[in-house]
Amino acid sequence: MGALPTISVITVTWNLIEAGRRDAILEVMDCVQGQSASGLEHVIYDGASTDGTQALIEEKIAALQQDGAPVPVRFFSEPDGGLYDAMNKAVDASTGDYIIFLNSDDLIERADSLALVQEKLASEDPDYAFGQTTYVNTDGSTFYARRVTTNSMLRSIPFCHNSTLIRRKVFQELGGHDLQFRIVADYDMTLRIFMRGLRGCAVMVPIAVFRRGGLSADLIRTGTEVAQVWRKNYAPFVDMSRYSDEECLNWVRIGQLPLRVSWGIFLGNLGKPAVRRAARHSFIKTLLRSMQPWRSWDNLSE
Asked: Hey, how many other C-beta atoms are within 10 angstroms of the C-beta on 271?
């Protein structure tokens, strides 16, 4: 095992007090400080808040420093072009070998989560890693996603963005999040990494506590962007122009790709076993569902 890699935990903020998240961001900052891992930094990037969020964070940082906080906090505040632009700017300001995004109202599951992840990163040296997530629904109920795999990557992001660590240089070499996507740029980034055949690994460790809601709660808008992500990433392997936007959105609705698309991706990715496994998985799923005409699926309804 090599030296433990360093990790930048990245949180972006904007007008959190106005949004009722004053206590949440303080809890996030304490959560990062409570991690037992070494070699961490917490990069907080604020989009020039106007409601006192900057002062709140600066006061908290001062209090942490006075108490001898083990994790250095680096705080920046300037205008940005939205959530994903802020994330890109925060990554550029970070110094860790790997990055992980932590939303301003989410948490890291356990005090040893990142320490356990670090050990896996050191032993496997992957380009990206993904772990387990506890999802908190709007009614307070929870769901623990233990099984993590890339088999369904071609149809949706199969693990939480907040439970994913990406090598910082890989993120930057790919140009960061594609800002044409306002809701699912995280899926696009993960899919781009995956389609390049870069090396990933599953970490059977609970990493994030993720509260459902936010931008991705708008199912139609989200589905429309997912369809656009597919057009962009599958075009090198399949003639996506033959499909209308309505057809692509319907693929999102039913949660499956046409056999032609899955087969094209399979044939076009020799030497990329994970991509071919995902294409085969997608092909088989569509084939099996075609044998169940009495069933229906709708991922775009509440």
From this structure: 7
